[in-house]
Specification:
Helices cover 46% and strands 13% of the residues. It is of the alpha/beta class and 510 residues long.
Length: 510
Amino acid sequence: MSRTERRGRRSRQQSPAQVRQVDYRNLKNPFPVMNAFSEDRIEALHQASLEVLEDIGVKVLLPEARQLFKAAGARVDEAAEMVWIGREIVGAALATAPRAIQLRAGARQRDLELKLGNLVFQPGAGAPHATDLKRGRRPGTLRDFRELIQLTQSFDVLHMLPPLVEPQDVPMHLRHYAMTEVMLTQSDKFPFVFSRGTPQVLDTFEMIRDFRGLSDAEFHSEAHCYTIINTNSPRTLDVPMAQGLIDFARAGQVSLVTPFTLMGAMAPVTVAGAMTLSHAEALAAITLTQITKPGAPVTYGTFTSNVDMKSGAPAFGTPEHFTASLVAGQLARRIGLPWRCAGGSAANLGDAQAANESQFGLWGCLLAGASVVIHSAGWLEGGLSVSYEKLITDLEVLQMVAELCAGTPATEADIALDALREVPPSGHFFGAAHTMARYQTQFYQPLVADWSNIGSWTENGSLDATARATGIWERTLAQFEAPPQDLDKAAALRDFIDKRTAEGGAPPES
């Protein structure tokens, strides 16, 4: 049961007539999009990206991918592993890429639709470390991954399951089994699959298919999982990423294409130059999915920010990060595809710096019109760790955003003329009938912030937000209940994992 559902249950117990209705599962972005560049500059950037693909070329390390590009009409130099993709090939690919993608989760109420205008949040992903106040910073373990999946399941404003931390106590050739089992048994949200070679991908497809009770045809006809594809900037598609694009396209599963272009490091130092490179790499990857299987579900994406030029370390939540997100949104609208953006923080602790960077990065995504916002909760150290406490404090902001997505009604009753007649000049509205009918349902119920600590400093006020967040994640895990599942399918999943483990698992491809 999610926190939203538990909160609603408590409200019903207190006053059956006063139930606060919330829906954080189907969000629409309520904010008007903001442009960083003029439309003619966006068109110039798009044309420059096509020139990069057509004249400068990209390196594609997977022979099968080079052959697919060649069959589609691209010029290929096998010895140099280079591919030059004509703009007509890119244009044809963009014409077949879907504008809306239906995502089938483990429960129908968790299904999502990726399209421009919709808003989906994910917590931080791919970190090698976990951290919390009780156990400190540590290499990620399977226990950490399980707990973070349970926390993700518990809050409706998080919609998709990412690889929050790498469980480094599980060998790489077996890790996909352990992570998939956790995602399937501890959550009914839309799951993630690593692209680390065809054997691991096919293993995971089979686990999801059978656990969901699907036939091969049913699995391939709709999207039941997704992967994240990072190009190897600048201008390189490596073997596992190219193979992932092909494998997911053939199976009808979703690829979130995400060049990781840091200005001054793997990309030109200017926002426009970095976004030209990012756009070119994204177009190359999207094109590969469509020449593999026209209509394959794929999203546009970017993860573009700057670096600290003194240290070379990534920086997030900066003006350049914000601006790059706005440009990416303009480019996504230019080609018409749903797209993935990212927040995040480079702070080492869940402090004011972390909060400021995360919120500034988040607002860049929101005002850019992102369809999927990853790293929206819990991310620290530029992705080196996921913090349990920061996951909770960031959720406070995401739930406030979700409240804004619901809109503010202005019915005749909301205008409150009766209350204005009832309360005399210099009076107060605490006891007004209009207030009393709504006092349990009118406002957002804070998650971490204490809005009622007047006169109770020693009891509540002495705890800062991080300490309060510790109590929240501990209580959430202690009360966690996994979603209902078929015990026979769960046993069959375990049998499959045991069998494949005994056979040696599936080594990742490099």
